[in-house]
Amino acid sequence: MTNFEQLEILLQEPKNILISSHANPDGDAVGSSLALAHYLFTLGHRVNVIMPTEMPDFLDFMPGIEKIWIYEKQTDLCNQIVENTDLIFALDYNNFNRTEIMETVLANSKAYKVMIDHHMAPSDFANAMLWRTSASSTCELIYDFLSLMNALDAAPIETFETMYVGILTDTGGLQYATSPALFRLVADISERGVNINYISDQVSNSYSYKRFRLMGYSISDRLELLEDINTGIIVLDVEDHRHFNIQRGDLEGIVNLILRIRDIRCAVLITERKDRVKLSFRSKGNFSVQEICSKYFSGGGHLNASGGQSRDNLPGTVDRLKELLYTEYKAALIS
Ligand SMILES: [Mn+2]
Question: In what side-by-side order are the strands of the sheet with 128-131?
Fold first, then answer.
């Protein structure tokens, strides 16, 4: 970690600390934020956690989630917190533009900034930085941070419980992005008393009936398989959003379903929003969807999981993507 000693000294006296994460927070964003908050609180710091937008409701079981502020709903109060903060932790993102409506207020803050993240291509706003793309999740990096702080024995159980949520959601339930170190971590937090089965159950078996039906519809009515290039695309338009009353979190996991088909290398979910079209990519092996997103869809993320957006309309975006895949990426997709 860069500038760890400096940060360690700062944390020796009680501070006003703000923990922030990206817009449309997922299990890793919320998990890493709560894991760190539970630990810093025990050191005597004043800790506030702010998410730019609302969190998916399957995370409601997490200890401490009721204390998280939502910037879009409590803007004035959140602005005051940012103004009075000594330290800002940026978790699970590496560019303030990922916080969307919080971008300006965070970028303008004079507070000491700490980035803990595992996404590719970080920007350089941080005073201290723990960044590793080989980490499964930011939650795994929180464990590394505790280890650097010599705090694994001092951290409360809630730190490890919330940490495990992000590990599960960012690895598809320990299916991908894993490593021997990650399995040692899981064994360790299990020994420390984390109820692994309970958390897995809360995270995996939490669909609303509506979301379950949306999954079925996406597969049966909205999936186009381009078998000659090992690609599957699901397209949802504004009418689908209206009909299923799609809310934050309802689309989580839909793109991953496509990878369940044998031989599929690239999976894409394209959704039409009010002002733009969003694309969510997953891939297998060394096929980089991060490259496609950063080059053509003003986004990025990880080698095998990335997101982006398009200002074209929905059919225009779908056509452009297909053309790209057939012209630029066919060889890589069938190799
Ligand atoms: Mn993550």
Answer: 69-70, 46-51, 16-20, 87-91, 112-117, 128-131
